[in-house]
Amino acid sequence: MTVIGWIQIFLYCAIVVALVKPLGWYMTRVFNGESTFLSPVLRPVERGLYWIGGVDEKREQHWLTYTVAMLLFHVGGFLIIYGLMRLQALLPFNPQDQSAVAPDLSFNTAISFITNTNWQNYGGESTLSYLVQMLGLTHQNFLSSATGIALAVALIRGFSRSSMRTIGNFWVDVTRCTLYVLLPICVVYTLFLVWQGMPQTLGAYVDATTLEGARQTIAVGPVASQVAIKMLGTNGGGFFNANAAHPFENPTALSNFVQMISIFALGAALTNVFGRMVGDQRQGWAILGVMGVLFLAGVAITYWAEANGTSTLSALGLTGGNMEGKEVRFGIVASSLFAVITTAASCGAVNAMHDSFTALGGMIPLINMQLGEIIVGGVGAGLYGMLLFVVLAIFVAGLMVGRTPEYVGKKIEAREVKMAMLAILVLPLMYLGWTAVAVVFPPAVASMANAGPHGFTEVLYAFTSATGNNGSAFGGLTGNTFFYNLTLASSMFVGRFFMIVPAMAIAGSLAAKKSIPPSAGTLPTTGGLFVGLVVGVILIIGGLTFFPALALGPIVEHLAMNANNLF
Amino acid sequence: MLREIRPAIILLLLLTAITGLAYPLAMTAIAGVIFPKQAQGSLIEKDGKVIGSALIGQEFREDKYFHGRPSATSAPDPADSSKTVSAPYNAANSGGSNLGPTSKALNDRIKEDVDKLKAENPNAPVPVDLVTTSASGLDPDISPDAALFQVPRVAKARKMPEERVRQLVTEHSQGRMAGLLGEIRVNVLVLNLALDAAATK
């Protein structure tokens, strides 16, 4: 570890924190329906969309209607992606003549993108036409992240409203998020990325004759416009197979730094939106504090592990850390930091191959996802995931003192706690359950690229990433098989929607409750005690759930490596 | 609930058209005007022919060129399309080795490369980036140490003084962005082009 490495890490954190208030202020205005500096241009477009779509923007929805609207929207999104992938050979913008994608891979990819997972069982440049990349994947990058943010805002309204039956209008929230938040940032961001060297062209792949006379086909495409929303919306599905490690998808140290900031920017700012909407910004800062503690702990461990390298590398006299699967322009620190950020948020873009990380360095990304991706988390999803843990922590605190727990003026009762537990428990059911099936099912075992405990970690990582809607991978695992295409798709689906529905049920039941003023017996939820309590609950629930699985994978691998056992 | 079906179809189609067609096509048009070189892939031409991209590494085997990092990219086997064969720096199929720290295959491969490099230059420690594959398999850069390590071989093959070659490496080392971000690095293709240019002078 180096001083300049830590300076980069702290500079990163400082910039993310500095963006929280301005972005939080702006997004609060957007979701409260107030006008912004972009309204003169965008308001007519917005009204036009409502008019054609038959949306009455004044009419709010009950939580159930809100949820159904969201689900219908996703059924449509699924059909668009699936159809485009199956028919791409017949459609325009296909200069490489990519043929139709197989049904199981199309199914997996469509589920993957509507759930904001963006798991890559496809290799972008070798499988997909430009039309699929744009109309299929880029559009769902926008809409799945807009949906995540809309849902988080709906849950916030549950906390901030008193005795109301409705939690907002899904169509309005999604439209405003797309038009006022995501699109304007992406337009500027795309140009920045092209400036840094990212291609943005509809031309065919380039045939070059190298200095030594060999032929090299260089894949290009409309990369920058997709990467902008891929990072900002914590989607993470790469234009290229190597994702953000590909020099075209992340050309410079600066593009890398800005990409890392954009992963956290909206998710972190949503804590401020929460604070503003419940009328006390300190509530938002406390939640961001919980996230910050867990984040920095993860960064420290991964950075330390990767900088130390492996015992086999040092036995050969190689110093400079574990550079296998990393790019020179990023080095150890920017690769480690990126890995922790992308799994803390549910982004899943990678600028280094997690599969080649050291055992402990690769364990932190795994833990980040198993905790439920609540350390900033996916845009929106991170906040509603975190609020579920807050509900539990408040409940535990209430049990300790024997009072009905309250949070930001709302009594937390049996219904909320049950729904929170349901959402939290369904995740390990998927990733532990499917991992258990996969490691005893011979065709699934055959997909592992590494033998020994590392192979087990590959499978555990895949199902964890899918369930958490992350999308990063221990890429050695051959996921494009019938078994994995279907089981991973089911994990992604359950991980997304079985968390959303209980969260929306909580939103509905909270909105209907009366707000009560804090009394002398109310647990203050803005201080260090509260932060410690929530961190504790997260680690205890997480630890009890997945520690045994980690012991079989990365932990035993670390011990094996130190004992010089190779597989 | 039934009245949600109309927006579900129409809004979806409209927003898809905006974000999936209008936005990327508009960005393609604008980027092509403002940053035409980058938008096309930062291609390098020599005598009117494309010889590569400044951002994409290419394979160098000859002694007179600096070599990049090992690359784990592959291509479909021409004999059997269900299998793949090793194809270093295949810029149409990026990817890493995905081998973990306890992989015997990885450690054997690294040991072999270290032995080869030690035989080539016994006087300097082997730089780690020269024996590890990159994440994309297309890493255009190596560390300055990795370039300096190869100076004796390159100088000998070109019958140039080592001092001159070393000077070229130093000239083509790119520092950290603002002295802070990223790592110090040398772009192999750019360095080799400079080397060719220096040789013809």
Descriptive report:
The complex is a heterodimer of chains A (567) and B (201). With 567 residues, chain A is mainly alpha-helical. Helix content of chain A is 65%, strand content 2%. In chain A, strand 3 and strand 4 (410-411) form a beta hairpin. In chain A, helix 6 packs across helix 7 (170-196). In chain B, the strands form 3 sheets. In chain B, strands 5-7-6 form a 3-stranded antiparallel beta sheet. In chain B, strands 1-2 form a two-stranded antiparallel sheet. A two-stranded antiparallel ribbon of chain B has the order 3-4. Chain B contains 6 helices and 7 strands. At the A-B interface, helix 1, helix 2, helix 3, helix 6 and helix 7 of A face helix 1, helix 2, strand 2, helix 3 and strand 5 of B.
Could you tell me how far the N terminus lies from the C terminus of chain B, measured between alpha carbons in angstroms?
Answer: 77 Å
Largest interface between protein chains, with number of residues from each side: A-B, 128 and 100 residues
Radius of gyration of chain A: 23 Å
DSSP strand tally of chain A:
4
Unreliable stretches of chain A (pLDDT < 50, length at least 5) are none
**If you average the pLDDT of chain A, what whole number results?**
93
Low-confidence stretches of chain B: none
Number of DSSP-assigned strands of chain B: 7
Percent of sequence in beta strands of chain A: under 5%
